[in-house]
Specification:
alpha/beta, Purple Acid Phosphatase, chain A, domain 2, five-stranded mixed beta sheet, four-stranded mixed beta sheet, 7 helices, 9 strands, disordered C terminus
């Protein structure tokens, strides 16, 4: 099983009745229609995600017709609700899980806090936990000393992001645990972060290239 993150797909989010707005306009997406956008997002998802995989969605999955899109996409889907994720109970049952926010203590050796919007500080952020977010459509700067990442499709060529790639990016950040924090597990967590840095740093460029992310 592989794990992916994504956000802000906005399936079916077209212009209003007057012909204004929609996610293609607001996020300046390079699609001629909502149908074209939806088809590209589905194809990109299914080209990377198998039915045995899990995708964690940091909000704003779809504008309408949620069950239709859920049926088109491979894998198990865990949703962290975003500002546009309004749907009846029958839709909720078709996600593996639905949360308002999510903290995972150990996922592939790292701690994650997943929210729709970016946070300035988050649970155990001084200890090396990673904040995964969406909502901003790539408009927020990424800071080299912070362990957080926008996984919205507008940032990632309209594709889900593999967890291995996220861990490699975080390993190359210049994060240092806050020396003021005390606790019996601090030394162990700092060592894990350091080990992860060493393990992934030499493979960073080739992995990015192999996954076709970049230019």
């Amino acid at each position: 099983m592989n794990i992916f993150f994504t956000a802000d797909l906005h399936f079916g989010h077209g212009p209003n009745k007057q012909g204004y707005g929609g996610i293609i306009f607001h996020a300046k997406r390079p699609f001629g229609s909502v149908w074209e956008m939806d088809e590209a997002l589905i194809n990109n998802w299914n080209s990377m995600v198998k039915n045995s995989d899990t995708v964690i969605i940091a909000g704003d999955f779809a504008w309408r017709n949620h069950n239709h899109y859920l049926g088109e996409l491979n894998g198990s889907k865990i949703l962290i609700r975003g500002s546009h994720d309004k749907f009846p109970q029958e839709v909720k049952r078709n996600f593996a899980e639905v949360h308002e926010g999510m903290a995972i203590k150990n996922l592939c050796g790292a701690a994650f806090v997943i929210t729709h919007c970016a946070m300035r500080v988050w649970e155990r952020s001084h200890y090396g936990s990673i904040n995964i977010y969406g909502h901003s459509h790539g408009r927020l700067p990424e800071y080299n000393d912070k362990l957080q990442l926008d996984v919205g499709v507008d940032v990632w060529q309209y594709k889900p992001v593999p967890i291995d790639l996220i861990l490699m990016i975080m390993a190359c950040r210049n994060f240092k645990a806050d020396g003021r924090v005390t606790g019996e597990d601090l030394d162990e967590m700092v060592k894990e972060l350091s080990d992860r840095n060493e393990k992934h740093r030499n493979h960073f460029e080739c992995k990015i290239s192999n996954l076709s992310y970049g230019g």
